[in-house]
Amino acid sequence: MFEQIITGTKIIGTDHLAADDLDRLIFYCKGAAANVCVIMDNNSLKLRDEMLADLQKIRKVEVLNQVFPNPKVEDIMSMVNALEGKDINIVIGIGGGSSLDSAKGVAAILSNGGDLDDYLGASATRKIEKRDVQLVLIPTTAGTGSEVTKVGVYTSRSGRKYTLGSPLMQADIALLVTDYVKDLPPAITASTAFDALSHALETLWNKNATPLTDRMAIESAVHILQWMEIAYDSSISGGTAGRKEMLEGACMAGTAFNITGTAAVHALSFIFSEEWHVPHGVACAFTLEDVFQLNLRDEKTRMRLVQIARKLFDGDTEEALLSSLLDRIITLKKKFGLPLSLKDLNIELSDEQVNELFDKSLDDPKMKNNSVKVDSRIIFELIKGKMK
Question: Has this prediction a pTM greater than 0.70?
Answer without folding.
Answer: yes
